[in-house]
Write a structure and sequence with these properties.
This protein has 9 helices and 15 strands. By secondary structure, it is of the alpha/beta class. It has a 5-stranded parallel β-sheet, sandwiched between helices. A 4-stranded antiparallel β-sheet has the order 9-10-12-11. The protein starts with a strand and ends with a helix.
């Protein structure tokens, strides 16, 4: 059976300039490959070594990019290696098959959300009322599935996020703070459910996963083995579980190490 590798992208495999966390001497910095351009500007990177490792991984496993990005945001990314047959977008709300939306999967997801949690309109209205314009830069809705705010992180009151998390939990939603974005996502909208669907369709056996945020926790727990970098929400909370490896590396070098771990584990399973 093939090995399935489901990995988060942003701040796990790919990194913005602000998230690279290059701490050594400039002359020893790794060579970087740009993998995303937005509005004619380079936006996301991985090391050239990571790019080579990802190409190897794509040849050896069922590699599934697994992201909270919308489909449009995901399609801006040009990952090295063979084009993935499957990709999980919108935190599991959309499943792409050979680049095309699987509408049946999306319908199954939306039916479950309607039955199990408060409507998106209620969440949007609360955010409009509660988010202070002094530190809120943008209100956004992703794929009519969840909402997020773009904020000035240094001005954001920590207690406000905690209060929002309690409010959301009482309505079947969850909150994740990632960089300058506060995501408010329905609890049943998970990456792990979509990963299980891909495993079912491909007949894949062992599942490997990686991620850095609270929204990746269910994905890591659903996999046979998982890795998290030394940065991000999960690292800040010192989160771990059986089968999860907490890596010390931070920034773009963590992405490189995660790919090494994936390849070693996949080869061992084979």
């Amino acid at each position: 059976m093939p090995v399935l590798v489901a990995s988060d992208l942003d701040r796990t495999l790919i990194y913005s300039a602000n998230a690279l966390a290059l701490t050594g001497p400039d002359a020893q910095a790794p060579r970087l490959l740009c993998v995303e351009v937005y509005e004619s500007r380079p936006l996301s990177y991985m090391t050239e070594t990571a790019a080579r490792l990802l190409a190897e991984l794509g040849d050896a496993t069922v590699f599934v990019p697994t992201t909270t990005r919308t489909r449009e945001q995901y399609r801006r990314i040009s990952l090295p290696g063979p084009a993935p047959a499957y990709a999980i977008c919108a935190n599991g709300g959309h499943l792409l098959v050979d680049g095309e939306t699987d509408h049946d999967w999306h319908a199954r997801v939306t039916t479950r959300l309607t039955a199990e949690c408060a409507p998106l309109a209620e969440v949007r209205a609360h955010l409009e009322r509660a988010a202070d314009p002094a530190w809120t830069r943008k209100h956004r809705v992703a794929e009519d599935l969840f909402a997020y705010l773009v904020v000035e992180r240094e001005l954001l009151p920590e207690e406000w996020v905690k209060e929002l998390a309690v409010w959301a939990e009482n309505r079947g939603w969850t909150v994740s703070l990632q960089g300058r974005k506060i995501y408010v996502v329905p609890g049943p909208l998970t990456k792990s459910a979509a990963m299980r669907e891909v495993a079912r369709r491909t007949g894949a056996g062992p599942a490997l996963a990686a991620g850095d945020s609270l929204l990746d926790a269910d994905l890591l727990l659903a996999a046979d083995r998982g890795w998290r970098p030394g940065h991000g929400e999960l690292a800040d909370a010192d989160w771990t579980a059986p089968g999860i490896t907490a890596l010390p590396e931070r920034g773009v070098t963590a992405g490189e190490q995660i790919l090494r771990e994936f390849l070693e584990a996949a080869r061992s399973a084979g």
